[in-house]
Specification:
Catalytic activity: L-glutamyl-tRNA(Gln) + L-glutamine + ATP + H2O = L-glutaminyl-tRNA(Gln) + L-glutamate + ADP + phosphate + H(+)
Bound molecules: glutamine
Oligomer: single chain
Number of helices: 17
Largest sheet: 11 strands, mixed
Keywords: ATP-binding, Ligase, Nucleotide-binding, Protein biosynthesis
Radius of gyration: 21 Å
Structural class: alpha/beta
Helix content: 25-40%
Subunit structure: Heterotrimer of A, B and C subunits.
Number of strands: 11
Order of helices and strands: HHEHEHEHEHEEHHEHEHHHHEHHEEHH
EC number: 6.3.5.7
Protein name: Glutamyl-tRNA(Gln) amidotransferase subunit A
Length: 502
C-alpha cells in the first residue's frame, strides 16, 4: 500500500493508518490533526461530540511519535469514546444534565486499555441520556445528525459515536449496547457495530443503565477495524464481578479469513420472527429486500440457509422494557445531588430530601424519569411477580430459543432494524414508536449472546444493516460472516458516502 494522501486520512481505515504509521509514512500528529481539523469544520453541523480537547490530543500524539511506538498495534491512532465511558479528569456526563461538570477521578477499564494501547483520545461523544433512546434526541446537550442526511437521526443511544465515525470525525469509536445501542446506530449510519458476549468486555467504569444487559463494543467503518478495536478492549477484568475469565478472542484473524468469501459448511438460520412471513409489521420493504439479497450472497459463498423459528422473540420488546427500566431505577438512585455533578436548592434552608428531589427533578430528562417511574412501579411489592418476575421468565424463554436455534445452525441472522434512519423529531414524542426501533436487537441483548451489524446496502439512499448473532463466546463467527458479506457486497458501504471507493 502507498501512503495515504493527507486529505484522505479521514477516510482511511484504522488498519491502513496503523500500517502507514508503522512504516513511518505518517505520524500520529498528522493523523490526529486531520481529525481535529475535520471536527472543527464539521461538528457544528453534526453535533457528534460533547467534549474535545485538541491540545491534549495533539500533545498525546506527539508523545506517541516521540516514543517511536506509533503503529505498534493501535498506538498513535485516534479514538472517540461514548460519554457513558468514565475518563479520568475528562468531563463525563452520560448525556445528562445531572452529571454536568463532573470530572471522574478514574478511568473505565475500556478507557484504560485503549490508553495503554497508545490510542489518542479525540473526545467524548453525544448520546441519549443514560443510554436511554434510539435516536440521540434524548441528550441534555442537543441532537446529533446523520452524516448521510442531516435531517435524520444517527440512531441511538450511541449516535454521537456513529455520526463521528460515519462523518469522518473519528476513525472508530466505542459505543455501548444495552438493547441495541451499538448495532442500531451502526446500521443507520452504514457502519459495522458489534455487541460482544455479555461479560466479555469489562463494564467497570461504564455509567450503569441496566447492569445485566450493558456491554461496550466497537463501532467502525470496516469489519477488520471493528475486530481490531474489539480485541483491544476485551478480556477478563477483576474489577467487574460479571467479567468472564476467558482469553481475549481472536477476531482480526477471523475477519481477514472471512474476507476470502468461503462460507462452505456454515449453517445460517434466518429468524422467522424478525421480518419473516407473518412478522413484517413495521418493516420497510427496502430493508427486507436488502436483507434477502444479503442472505442470497451468503448462500452464494457456500452457506447453507434455512429458516428458524424463535417464538419467544415476539415478547422481547415488552420484557426488555420491564427489565431495563427496573434495573435503571435502581442504578440511577445514586444520582442524589450529593455525590456527583449537579446540586439544586442547597441554600441552607432545605433538608437533604428536598435538595435530592429538586436535583433529580431538574437534572433528569423526561425519558429517564419515565423509566425510573416505570421501573420503580414494576419492582414494587405486590407487582414484582406480575411484571418483573414474568419478564424474567420471558428472558429465559428467549435464551432457550437461542439454544434450540444454535443446536441446528451456526449463526442466526435478521435485519438489524425494521426501518432506515427516520427524520429528526418524528418519534421523539411517541416512546412506543421509538422503542420499536429495537425490535430486532433486543433478543441477543436479553440472552447475552454476541451480535454484529454489518451494512448490506442502501434503501432510498440510506444504509441498511444486517445482523449476525452467534452463541455466547463465539464472537469470532460474527466477524467471519460479516467480513464475508462486506467483501461480497463490494467493500465497506461507508466508502459510498465518503467517495473513497471512486
Ligand atoms: N433503545 C434502547 C433503549 O432505549 C436500547 C438502548 C441501549 O442499548 N442503550 O433502552
Amino acid at each position: 500500500m502507498s501512503a495515504p494522501e493527507r486529505s484522505d486520512l479521514t477516510t482511511t481505515s484504522a488498519a491502513d493508518l496503523a500500517r502507514a504509521l508503522k512504516a513511518r509514512e505518517l505520524s500520529s500528529v498528522e493523523v490526529t490533526r486531520a481529525y481535529l481539523d475535520r471536527i472543527a469544520a464539521e461538528d457544528g453541523r453534526l453535533g457528534s461530540y460533547l467534549h474535545v480537547d485538541a491540545d491534549v490530543a495533539l500533545a498525546r500524539a506527539e508523545e506517541i511519535d516521540a516514543a517511536g511506538s506509533a503503529g505498534d498495534g493501535l498506538a498513535g491512532i485516534p479514538v472517540a469514546l461514548k460519554d457513558v465511558v468514565v475518563t479520568e479528569g475528562v468531563p463525563t456526563t452520560s448525556g445528562s444534565k445531572i452529571l454536568e461538570g463532573w470530572r471522574p477521578p478514574y478511568d473505565a477499564t475500556v478507557a484504560a486499555r485503549l490508553k495503554a494501547a497508545g490510542t489518542v483520545l479525540l473526545g467524548k461523544t453525544n448520546m441519549d441520556e443514560f443510554a436511554m433512546g434510539s435516536s440521540t434526541e434524548n441528550s441534555a446537550y442537543g441532537v446529533t445528525r446523520n452524516p448521510w442526511d442531516p435531517e435524520r437521526i444517527p440512531g441511538g443511544s450511541s449516535g454521537g459515536s456513529s455520526a463521528a465515525v460515519a462523518g469522518g470525525l473519528a476513525p472508530w469509536a466505542i459505543g455501548t449496547d444495552t438493547g441495541g445501542s451499538i448495532r442500531q446506530p451502526a446500521a443507520l449510519t452504514g457502519l459495522v457495530g458489534h455487541k460482544p458476549t455479555y461479560g466479555s468486555v469489562s463494564r467497570y467504569g461504564l455509567i450503569a443503565f441496566s447492569s445485566s444487559l450493558d456491554q461496550a463494543g466497537p463501532m467502525a467503518r470496516t469489519v477488520l477495524d471493528a475486530a481490531l478495536l474489539h480485541e483491544a478492549i476485551a478480556g477478563h477484568d477483576p474489577l467487574d464481578s460479571t467479567s468472564i475469565d476467558s482469553p481475549v478472542p481472536v477476531l482480526a484473524e477471523c475477519a481477514r479469513r472471512g474476507a476470502d468469501g468461503d462460507l462452505s459448511g456454515l449453517k445460517v438460520g434466518v429468524v422467522r420472527e424478525l421480518g419473516g412471513e407473518g412478522h413484517r409489521d413495521g418493516y420497510e420493504q427496502g430493508v427486507l429486500d436488502r436483507f434477502a439479497e444479503a442472505v442470497a450472497l451468503l448462500e452464494g459463498m457456500g452457506a447453507e440457509v434455512r429458516e428458524v423459528s424463535c417464538p419467544a422473540f415476539d415478547l422481547a420488546l415488552p420484557a426488555y422494557y420491564l427489565i431495563a427500566p427496573s434495573e435503571a431505577s435502581s442504578n440511577l438512585a445514586r444520582f442524589d445531588g450529593v455525590r456527583y455533578g449537579l446540586r439544586v436548592g442547597d441554600d441552607g434552608d432545605r433538608d437533604l430530601d428536598e435538595v435530592m428531589a429538586l436535583t433529580r427533578e431538574q437534572g433528569f430528562g423526561p425519558e429517564v424519569k419515565r423509566r425510573i417511574i416505570l421501573g420503580t412501579y414494576a419492582l414494587s411489592s405486590g407487582y414484582y411477580e406480575a411484571y418483573y418476575g414474568q419478564a424474567q421468565k420471558v428472558r429465559t424463554l428467549i435464551s432457550r430459543d437461542f439454544s434450540a436455534g444454535f443446536a441446528d445452525v451456526d449463526v442466526l441472522v435478521s435485519p438489524t432494524t425494521p426501518t432506515v434512519a427516520f427524520p429528526l423529531g418524528s418519534r421523539v414524542d411517541d416512546p412506543v414508536a421509538m422503542y420499536a426501533a429495537d425490535l430486532c436487537t433486543l433478543p441477543a441483548s436479553l440472552a447475552g449472546v454476541p451480535a454484529i451489524s454489518v451494512p448490506c446496502g442502501l434503501s432510498d439512499g440510506l444504509p441498511v444493516g444486517f445482523q449476525i448473532m452467534a452463541p455466547a463466546l463465539a464472537d469470532d463467527r460474527c466477524y467471519q460472516v460479516a467480513a464475508a458479506l462486506e467483501a461480497a457486497s463490494g467493500g465497506p458501504l461507508i466508502d459510498r458516502l465518503t467517495g473513497a471507493a471512486a
